């Protein structure tokens, strides 16, 4: 069994898109645990604020399969390259950790990522 952590967020219709993502991720990974959601200012772009959430799950699938499933989920939720080119992020879903291997290294230095990860560790532990 593999352990994974995902970070996802939206800067467009944020609450609805984060809620929709939770629904899709819950179907893909039935034993999933979500953190609370936090509002953050955009990094490197001028857009509306982001609503972000982190989650933990276990899976029998490998890292490549999980990443493929997350890309499919983004597409299903309406995320397009054209929108992203206009700094509209319907949903962005990133695999942050897989079996203890941290991915997206620079994101781990962001305060909200640290905050959500600490919260999630406490939830998973209980």
Mind sketching the topology for me?
Layout: E1 2-10, H1 14-28, E2 33-40, E3 50-59, H2 63-76, H3 81-85, E4 92-98, E5 101-102, H4 111-125
Antiparallel strand pairs: 1-3, 1-4, 2-3, 4-5
Helix pairs in contact: 1-2
Explain how this protein is built.
The chain is an alpha+beta fold and 126 residues long. The protein has one domain (2-125): Alpha-Beta Plaits (2-Layer Sandwich), CATH 3.30.70.560. It is 39% helix and 29% strand. The protein contains 4 helices and 5 strands, in the order βαββααββα. The protein has helices at 14-28, 63-76, 81-85, 111-125, and strands spanning 2-10, 33-40, 50-59, 92-98, 101-102. Strands 2-3-1-4-5 form a 5-stranded antiparallel β-sheet, sandwiched between helices. A hairpin with a 2-residue loop joins strand 4 and strand 5. Helix 1 (14-28) crosses helix 2 (63-76). The longest helix has 15 residues, at 14-28. The protein is globular and about 40 Å long. It starts with a strand and ends with a helix. The mean pLDDT is 94.
């Amino acid at each position: 069994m593999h352990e994974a952590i995902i970070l996802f967020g939206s800067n467009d219709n944020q609450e609805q898109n984060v809620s929709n993502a939770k629904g899709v991720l819950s179907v893909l990974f039935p034993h999933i645990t979500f953190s609370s959601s936090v509002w953050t200012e955009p990094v490197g772009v001028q857009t509306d604020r982001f609503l972000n959430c982190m989650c933990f799950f276990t899976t029998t699938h490998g890292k490549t399969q999980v990443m493929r499933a997350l890309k499919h989920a983004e597409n299903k939720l309406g995320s397009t390259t054209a929108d992203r080119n206009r700094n509209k992020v319907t949903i962005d879903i990133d695999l942050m950790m897989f079996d203890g291997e941290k991915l997206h290294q620079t994101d781990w230095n962001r305060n909200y990522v640290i905050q959500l990860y600490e919260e999630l560790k406490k939830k998973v532990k209980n």
